[in-house]
Amino acid sequence: MRIFIVVLLFFISTLVDASNFIAAKLPNSKYLAETPSITVALPSSYTTNSTKRYPVLYVLDGELNGELVKGMLHRLHLSNGSYEHIIVGITSSNRLRDFAPTVNKDPRGPVGEGGGGEHFLDFIEKELIPKINHDYRTTYFNVLAGHSVAGLLVIHSFQSRPKLFQSHLAFSPAVWWGARETSEATKKYVKSKTTNQNYLYMGIGDEGGEMREVYDSLALTIMRNRHLDLKLELDEFENDSHDFTMAAGIYNALKGLFQYQQQYGI
């Protein structure tokens, strides 16, 4: 798998130029002390088809992961394996502050860090998404993707604001964070049988210890209790480290997203 990832990253780097992403100008946020950096990449057909509308894929840590997602989407689309999407990269200068939904009190982690996740989702829901919908031709089908602590925010959004995004892609989500609050809240949400129609992808690598324990418990609970309207896809990459799970899983995640969109005529 590691060789595949290296080849994948090289291949994508030949397909995607960073200049394909343009900086979006937003006013100072009412919900955040520091407005994140926002970049936007449009599909290749956007300028040639003036009536077509597109789903939007919001990528947390956009400066790091935006090109990876765009390159894979482009390659899948060329093979009729994906719809074109508008890609919005969201980059925070302080990931723990903005992505972690609760303040960590566990001495095994950075005590006192985090807690801004809800404010960050307020920014996305009330400022960023309306801006993107206003400036571009969108279908109002939104996807959120993130890795590690950004993946934690993806899981938090899935259970706390289930109608905000229609699909969620979480790569090695740090669900151990903050005494497992997000994991436990997600279990409770899934067990309530009130889940909305959605697609949830979760992937994990060779992580061990509490992170793997909490992840496995959450994945099993979702699998056993999910409503039929929830399309769930779980991945495991036992030979890949935490840092590489998004690269390892993005193909399966996007392929599953396409199948979900086709199934429901999206």
UniProtKB/TrEMBL annotation:
Transmembrane segments: none annotated. Keywords: Hydrolase. Pfam families: Esterase. InterPro entries: AB_hydrolase_fold, Esterase-like, Siderophore_Hydrolase_D. One of its GO terms (molecular function) is hydrolase activity, acting on ester bonds. It comes from the Bacteria. Belongs to the esterase D family. This is Esterase. It comes from Pseudoalteromonas rubra.
